[in-house]
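FORM 7B: Structural annotation worksheet

SECTION A. Query
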Amino acid sequence: MEIFTLNHLWAYLTLTIMEIILGIDNIVFISIAVSKIKNPSLKERLRKIGLFLALILRLLLLFSITWVIGLKAPLFSLFDYQITGKDIILIGGGLFLLVKGTFEIHDTVSCETHHTTTVMSQSPFWIVLQIGIMDLIFSLDSIITAIGMSRNLWIMSSAIITAIIVMLLCAKKIGQFIEQHPSIKILALSFLILIGVMLIAEGFEAKIDKSYIYFAIAFSLCVESINLKYKANEQHHHQKK
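SECTION B. Predicted structure
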């Protein structure tokens, strides 16, 4: 069959890697969203629901390519910018991430716990709703990238499914690591704010190379990992005394 040619295989592998990279911010958001759930089994269930939602939305959008492409048609002008449906979604998603990240950092740093906030943040419905909204935003980015890299529907859908499976396998470990290290959680929330700024910028047609953002996050994580290792060694040294 034509789908098994070498060119198609390379397209599949390249697209899968791209989808995994684009899914990193999705995993981080899901990990933050479920972090306040105390029940481990419910937390894992919500994490899986979030990723399955991401898969379903990506496949639905993929099979609605004409609609996705149509989102690039200008709707109105604002400050000399031609605003499209895609731009509105990106700006809305970016603002949501900015607000979400800022409030989460405030709660984490101040250690304040208001009953109403806690009940709301631990509501499975509210968590799934947040994940669903952001899945839609990240799915648009993912699908538009897929369309740009390949025109073969089966290659695109196979790459997306493979990427989600990889994300399912990694999500729990990433979530646990974020929860166990408050400083990493702050970094993850800062990452969400950074992604929010990037989405808003993209909504106004200001292209920001994602590789710069991923490099900044990777560098910050490396520095923080060294810091965590130093603290662990220092604690071990004090225990020996």
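SECTION C. Observations
The first strand starts at residue 74 and ends at 78. The beta strands are 74-78, 81-84.

SECTION D. Sign-off
Analyst initials: ____
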